[in-house]
Design a protein that fits this description.
It contains 7 helices and 17 strands. By secondary structure, it is an alpha+beta fold. The protein has 2 domains: 54 residues, no CATH class; 206 residues, Fumarylacetoacetate hydrolase, domain 2.
Amino acid sequence: MYLSRHRAAEGPRWALDGRYLPLGFALGRLLEVPAADVRGLLEGHSLEEAAEDPPLPPVEPEHEVWASGVTYLQSRDAREMESADADAYERVYVAERPELFFKAQGWRVVGHEGLVRVREDSRWNVPEPELVVVVSSGMEVVGYTAGNDVSSRDIEGENPLYLPQAKVYDGSCSLGPGIVLCGPDSMRDLRISMEIRRKGEAVFEDEVDTSQMKRSPEELAEYLGKELALPVGAFLMTGTGIVPEDDFTLEVGDVVGISVGDLFLENEVGP
């Protein structure tokens, strides 16, 4: 099952497998039910006309997007290299407790073909392609989408306490194009790839597999839900295993294409 959100004449609308769900359907209400009931609840809705309106980010304004760090060896190595406190990332990688941080509110998220941004006060910025899991209010993983966690490496590297400024700003979070509804077992061997084009030419390409993740989506979701209520569910970025070379930084006009399984998310870097 595949959920997408669209800019319809009557306002944002959700679609299931390419056909509109009834007006008024809300993802937040779907994520209030146990994961085992999601499919049945959706099958109980009658579908309407084909969803041909422009895509919107597959998230509602009240949803929170959280993120995980240092879940791949490649990410640990890159953050150790950039940081003045490299030991902090080694400790996080081997610790029982994962690194989790707030990334965006739903209304701030950019969708497929929208513009992402880099900070004007940063000189070293990179996209981070990630598997993003969708979790219910009960912290069960019910599906996934593709995500781009745009980050300012020099700001975080200067001091780990600057992480919110390196990660949370307008245009720093992209999700889409839709949500694949499935259990976590379907996410254990997904290919994630990224290509960055500049003036029509590829300047970076790489890929990784989710089997290389140190922590499972279920483990990350469990920790997110400790002492934290998320009544309409949430989106959880699971970390990146693709890191451009140290001399690479995003520029306005670059186009970032990210594939997660069969999903493809593309964004241009805007001013």
